[in-house]
Description:
The protein is an alpha/beta fold.
Amino acid sequence: MKKQYFINANIIDPHNSINENGGLIIGEDGKIEAIGKKVNTNNLPTREKPTDLKGKYIFPGLVDMRVFVGEPGYEYKEDIKSGTKAAANGGFTGIVCMPNTDPIIDEATVVDYVKQKSKDLSVDVHIAAAITKKSEGKSLTPMLELDENGVVMFTDDGNCVMDTETMRRAFEYASTRDLLVSQHCEDHSLTAGFAMNEGMYSSKLGLKGSPSVAEEIIVSRDIMMSEYTGNSRYHVSHISTKGSVRLVRDAKSRGLRVTCEVTPHHFTLTEDLLVSYHPNLKMNPPLRSKDDVDEVLQGLLDGTIDCIASDHAPHALHEKDVEFEIAPNGIIGLETSLALSLTNLVHKNYLSLNQLIEKMSTNPRKIIGQDPVLIKDGEEANLTIFDPEEEWLVDVVNFKSKAVNTPFGDMKLKGKPKYAINKGEIIKSSL
């Protein structure tokens, strides 16, 4: 790539204690040649016209820990190429792809396929493998072999491992190499056929509800099992209820190695919106009550919730364009995650920009065992550039995802991704 010059940026790098205004030079090899106050219009080559980033911020590249890319098997919804383009468009330089593909990522050959398809792309693709074969909750995958093949996490994704003995064995195997086990927490015996959160609104709308306790039962069980098996590493996916947040908070206070993530839709939207019966509001976990959202926000504020993840779940238009009750669960989120977090967390003073870095870059990398991104001379440029003040309307026409199943269409947001920089490529957002 051609050498690139940026000036007048606000640069934040917690690991190097950088929080200053300055410029950035990225060399032809994709490495940072210079960063900070020393880079300005006075010391740039006169023939070069730098990109002026006045009012914009440079962060360590963002990572989304929960993304469905569709490939192999569901390329009509999303594929690895379109999924990573959507990620970069939303400011992400890394994603963790979930194993709910066809075939499921439960053996080394499928891992190798994903690696091959993603090796030349500008976004880092980390791979999660299933806990059990075919995600059926019965027999364990070859976890140690998959670990040797570079898998960063084990999860049956939307299928909760209901059998406690199987989950115990998963933790025991994981503990031998300090592997990360993650769970979609849902007691399926309580949620069969659900369409939304169980409560006043589900009764009012005549829809089968999913009770919050269905999530909390599994969170509690798994925390106890992780402790019983020697304080094994455990990550709660898309936490959504006040009870689950309190369980994780308590586990952390006792020194257990429990982490969790939350989605932007679970800290911005509430169950009352389902009076519209719009299929793009149907998801799993479902949108919860205001009390749940309030506790989630408190969990973000006090550090109980470690990460923000989109839970990007693309569906074809014809799949979502049906009656609410029969529509599949899930929404896309890669291209709105950063903007929603800026709008609803930073601008409402729940999180500082430094704390947002922790939730969307530092902590995800730490949890999946990746080195932190360093913004300093000689390092590979792995960066997210955004404007925290720019207001814009979400328009799916500008998305890079194949899918358009978002509840945030036409919503006004404050804060916008501008560039994702990684692997020697600078991707300008089309949002």
